[in-house]
Amino acid sequence: MKVPANLGKEEAIGLYEQMLLIRRFEEQSDRLYKSGKIKGFCHLYIGQEAIAVGAISSLRPDDYIITHYRDHGHALARGMDPKVVMSELMGKVTGSSRGLGGSMHLFDVEKRFMGGHAIVGGQLPLATGLAMAIKHKKDDQIVLCFFGDGAVNEGEFHESMNLASMWGLPVLFFLENNLYGMGTHVDFTRSGGREIYTSADAYGIPATQVDGMDVLAVQEVTRQAIQRIRTGEGPVFVEAMCYRFRGHSVQDPMFYRDKEEVKKWEARDPINIFEQMMINDGILESEDIQEVAKCVGQAVSEAVDFADGSDEPGFEAIDQNIYS
Amino acid sequence: MPEITLREALKLGLREALDCDDRVFIMGEDIGLFQGSYAVTSGFLDDYGPDRIKDTPISESAIVGCGVGAAAAGLKPIVEIMTINFMLLAMDQIVNHAAKLRYMSDGQLEVPLVIRTVTGGGGQLGATHSQSFEGWFASVPGLYVAAPSDPYDALGLLRTAIDDNNPIIFAEHAKLYQVRGEVPDEYYSIPLGKAKIKRAGSDVTLVAYSRAVHTALEAAGLLSEKGVEAEVIDLRTLRPLDMNTVLESVRNTGRAVVIEEGWKTGGFAGELVSRIQEEAFDDLDGPVGRVCGLDVPAPYSGRLESKVFPEPQGVVNEIERLYGL
Ligand SMILES: Cc1ncc(C[n+]2csc(CCOP(=O)(O)OP(=O)(O)O)c2C)c(N)n1
Ligand SMILES: [Mg+2]
Which residues of chain B carry a pLDDT beneath 50? Predict the structure, then answer.
């Protein structure tokens, strides 16, 4: 993608900073998992930063986001406080759900971040329902619903696409096709081939594919999609082609793919690509890059210190929010 | 007798079935190239090839339904649903189809299907990934449910499950795969509906299955230090259910506590308590107790999660509360 003429320095720094924040946050999560401070399952977003940042930066604050368990990147891109996210990962009382939810179940309803959802495909009907409510209230927000290439094989995906299209609901179905669902390559799970966006056609939903390693391309495609959705023309489907640089979760030994493939994709690191583009175009200087790196490093270490120093939740939390 | 892990016992049973019967195949998410999310089928794809070891898309309903159809057409499918939490997406195929075809066709159809799945909590996986639904399935006529607690039972029950001509839910506890135990080289199998007395005792009967058996055994150790001898019964299968072994023990001890990892409300433990009091009321010295999972969605926090699942000390406390022992 060419750098748009109107991209200002401030905006470029914003995108770069968010992507780098996610990257460094995730690298820290990896370490903290391995040292036993984060438990359970922990799915890193490394390699896919351009998608969360490109797409979410195109939203209004009152738009909704809903996603799956690989949710740290989406949460941070939405502006959730890294301290609060890290605390949730460590199961602390200062976490977004007081440690009740954990890494796979992040929520920040004030920011309209409607959850990480750990049952594959589970967020798709919920997204449809959020959009139904918007339409019912005659509002003009949209719902940005993220999911993976694995989720498109659940019935819930097809049922949701059909409903959303039939009822003209304001949903942006946003597929992050990182080529794998756990250890299974998309070539072994899709009868129609890896170009999944073509399946939206069956539901009469306009669909496009975009390079998920290019934050500006993602942003542009998302803006166009949102424009259409906001005018009440119903759902749009975007497929961002990308790659999960790390294992499915931190514990994954990755028997199923060779290092060459990983290297090939790492050469297209979305953060490096953007950095190069910005420097080549003279929008950012290397001092800017260093400054951002410093800020991000500090934000992540503050988040870790904050989470580490926070208390675990008290036992009263255990049954306080089962019912209203 | 060689000592092996429960995981190895399952691998043995599955390999044996694949080796001996070409109607057997295994199908599920990430069982092949990924080597199984709990490594039970690791190495299988290399050894048996993709026709026998089928990696599937993430489509639980279709996976189970395909298994039902293939079974009805004469194959012996073993399907794996990665964890019992994801069985909810296949509930209709299990309850309305697998469990009903034989009955509704008056025996014209047969569903020799094994649905292997991973149950249980305790890994800080949070509310959606820590559940134990095997008790729900046990309430469905037409389904069998097995939930072994050690390698010997895992292999013996798996052999029977595969041979049997009925659909069976085979629930493997996530925290038991590394449990070691002796498994003889000679062939044996364990009939469905035959409980096992894991420890003899005359003061109180502890009834459990799956991981809760280990909780019961540890509790029995603590009780013994107090001079209370517990008899520990491992149900091994929830359906068919071996009430005879349970009742015989309760008639002898006069006291019973059921231990189950799942929620107390509506749990299978409640079923056992009812049956014990229905059949052995006059032999009881006090109420039949339950030590179950707390009635809450599992919290992620380790501190909170440690309060959710049954603990040996909780069993000891309950026995003291109920019987003053
Ligand atoms: C219904 C259900 N089935 C299986 C799983 C286990 N599981 C968790 S993530 C995952 C892979 C999903 O892949 P994809 O949708 O491509 O997302 P990605 O992990 O690549 O971001 C699987 C099989 C689950 N959580 N829920
Ligand atoms: Mg994927």
Answer: none
